[in-house]
Amino acid sequence: MLNFDFYSPTRVLFGMGRHREIGALAAQRAKKVLLHYGGGSVKRSGVYGEIASSLEENGVQFAELGGVVPNPRLSLVRKGVELCLSEGVDLILAVGGGSVIDSAKAIAMGACHKEDVWDFFEGKLKDLSALPLAVVLTIPAAGSESSPVTVISNEEKKLKEGYRSDALRPFVSIVNPELFFTLPEDQIANGVADMMSHVFERYFTDTAKTDLTDGLCEAALRTIIKNAPVLMDDRRDYDAWAEIAFSATLAHNGLLGMGRKEDWASHRIEHQLSAVYDIAHGAGLAVIAPFWMKYVYGDNVGMFAQFAMNVMGAAPSRDIEGLALEGIGRLRRFFSSLGLPSTLRDLGIGSGDFEFMAKNATGAARGSEKPLGGLKKLLWQDVVEIYRLAQ
Ligand code: NZQ
Ligand code: ZN
Q1: Domain architecture of the chain: domains with CATH
Q2: What backbone torsions phi and psi does residue 296 show, to the nearest 5 degrees?
Q3: Does the global pTM surpass 0.90?
Q4: Model confidence over 34-74: pLDDT tens digits?
């Protein structure tokens, strides 16, 4: 096990009815809030009205900015920054999923700096100040409710980049499984692929002697695999949502990666697909993660065999390589059973942009290539190869 620093300060309020506590929590930190949300699901579900009432009942004023789209856009972030400054906002409240939360995080940083917020994503600025953030989660998937990361799409440059700072961790996130009952099947499946990938990025490592976190990762993955099909049959199953949602938050609050070398190549490879083709992040991962596995499993075949037995239910065998491939095959079949795509063709993506995306993924396009990955170091040529495998 490697040395580590575990820091996860977000207070998570979990359970039925808890989103109505947001007004009292916001009142402890702010006089005026920016209420940030997406394309309308919160209004259709009635959550917007409940949040607005909770703020009003607790004497918290609010300005609002809706319209966040999946793969959240830099242009709306810039608008949000201006609104915060003109309205004197002192807290951002994100009501939505990863896209709304990430947009809120970027606004929170932008509102504390005179420079353009994209400078953070290009690595020109590094700073620890941001407005405080609160979250009411409406889709368990990205784990942004307890992560220090924001991922934003620059629509002009066709880039999707992340920025990480502990200042971006929400001080409170409310996770009420009842708010997920309105999610359509494709969003449930996308979320499952994303949360599982957050575990994979930590689980598949060459760090030795990691029994505890191996077990935690495997338990999270088994829990997700057991409960996702339940939701496909009944989107209003509270208990299945509770299992999935708690797994999703734990998958990305840092705990599962402690003491291990993490990977994150699949995420970097997928983000390029989202940037160029505007696909859902989870759908892209459902394609990329298994092909990344096929490309790298030889670097720690024992770990992939362990995954096959402890997570995917494969029977023990002396054929370790066969087991590793069996696990990857079972994972692909599981994703397909949820209706997720299994090739780039399923996503309507051809081979035209492979080199452009691969060079952006590793930084080769900017003349500063940094190999991706922890388990196996990947140069842009390797990334092209993974896109080709996934065709
Ligand atoms: O916009 P609305 O109308 O709200 O609809 C949304 C959206 O279309 C809908 N939705 C959300 N809650 C709903 C609902 N529909 C019905 N009922 C509800 N309760 O779901 C759609 C997808 O929402 P989005 O926020 O895009 O989903 P997700 O949570 O999967 O977030 C994806 C984004 O997070 C980033 C991804 O790259 C992607 O941009 N990530 C952020 C991370 C982080 N900050 O730590 C880590 C992740 O790896 C990921 O990269
Ligand atoms: Zn993700």
Answers
A1: 11-179 (3.40.50.1970), 185-389 (1.20.1090.10)
A2: -110, -10
A3: yes
A4: 999 999 999 999 999 999 999 999 999 999 999 999 999 99
